[in-house]
Amino acid sequence: MRDLVLSRGLINGEWVEAIDGKQVEIVNPSTGAIITAVPDMGKEESEAAVIAAHTALQDWRKTTAKYRAGLMKKWFDLMVENADGLAKLLTSEQGKPYKEAYGEVMYGASFIEWFAEEAKRMYGDVIPAANPNNRYMTIKQPVGVVTAITPWNFPIAMITRKAAPALAAGCTVVIKPGEDTPLCALAMALLAEKAGIPKGVINVVTTSRPAEVGDVLCRHPLVRKVSFTGSTPVGKLILRQASETVKKVSLELGGNAPFIVFEDADIDKAVQGALISKYRNAGQTCVCTNRLYIHDAIYDQFLEKYTQAVSNLIIGDGLVDGTEIGPLINQKAIDKVAQLVRTAVEQGATLTLGGNISDVGQQFYQPTILTDVTEEMDIAHQELFGPVSTLFRFNDEDDVVRRANDTPFGLAAYFYTQDHARVWRMSEALEYGIVGINEGIISTEVAPFGGVKESGCGREGSKYGIEDYLEIKYLCHGI
């Protein structure tokens, strides 16, 4: 792992310090230990990174898809070879259990492999001409310089979901990783460099001043696309900033995912699906179950089994074997979750399990279950981003659809039933970009990931994921 721990940013193929020498310490959330310090970059370094990406673009965009695919395949191979070290680094700076971290490394690498293959399938069209003296066709070309602004909760996968299609399309990128988790981005950039990807094609700006850096990366006239994963309020700001120069924008924003269990569901499968959807990464994912709607007929049975399963989860340092729940990312996250739980109890929710800071450490929150929750409570309308389950009762299919859709968010939803007619009704009625049907894990590189309403725009992964990095050009040829 130590060979992958870097303490400098990457601009134009050079590993550099901040111009003013400032640094920001990166802390292990499980232990509080300082892992290293990275440059605390600002406006000047961000502009330099954009210019470097623009300069590199002039040659990179002219390369063949086969050439780009070959380099990306080498990058993929290096990520797989270094999966153990990357996973340990990820756990050290982000906190998730090693098993989850290793899974993320392989998931992240899968996007590089997938888009390396998709690079060779960016087909244009020949269009039947309306005029016998003309020939019509379309070609696809790279949009240009891309800025990728990524969060801390998936510090590898959120980067490869953006950088891989960008590179495959012939674009160059400037990456601003999450302030708490820049080390994985730097490690992946190092492996890309070793794979032979030319200087300036990938640039990484580390900072503790995201607003200052983001302002440059979203407004700079040389940037032609912004891809952002994070909160809805920040996403709205980025959309406004990018609109000044009419950039392409992809946004993967907040969620408030419902998890609906009908009376005919396989309860054991529903419990396991809810468990993994809710408590993966200590509840710190945008597609985490936020609201569990359980049919009255099976509510007590589900609650008993679910409470037992949650109570058996093992909390601890992610690098210790057997750990299933790691820390929250920082004290601010702990404070938010604790306040949401306190307020819910004050408003009438019943604390069935957990509800406190764990004895393991200050940044560990106990896996928690709240029952008797209603839509009148504040917690029903918040993205929890913590290991807290809220259970609601329902009796009627139409009613639960209405309640599930009663949110400005529309990223992911889940439901469990064995009624095939209901599967189609629910799939079509839920206003979400992703729907898990009798399944709690929905992410894969081969399927489109993204939301509707205030959960964002655009899709990542799958054959659709490369489209936002391309421009369609129509050619009208007179003969």
Automatic annotation (TrEMBL):
Q: Which InterPro entries match?
A: Ald_DH/histidinol_DH, Ald_DH_C, Ald_DH_CS_CYS, Ald_DH_CS_GLU, Ald_DH_N, Aldehyde_DH_dom, Aldehyde_DH_Superfamily, Succ_semiAld_DH
CDD domains under this entry?
ALDH_F5_SSADH_GabD (cd07103)
Taxonomy, superkingdom:
Bacteria
Q: Which residues form the Aldehyde dehydrogenase domain?
A: 15-474
The catalytic site is made up of 252
| GO molecular-function term, one example from the UniProt record | succinate-semialdehyde dehydrogenase (NAD+) activity
GO term, biological process aspect, one: gamma-aminobutyric acid catabolic process
Q: Which UniProt keywords apply?
A: Oxidoreductase
Pfam families documented for this protein: Aldedh
The family classification in the record reads: Belongs to the aldehyde dehydrogenase family.
Q: What is this protein called?
A: NAD-dependent succinate-semialdehyde dehydrogenase
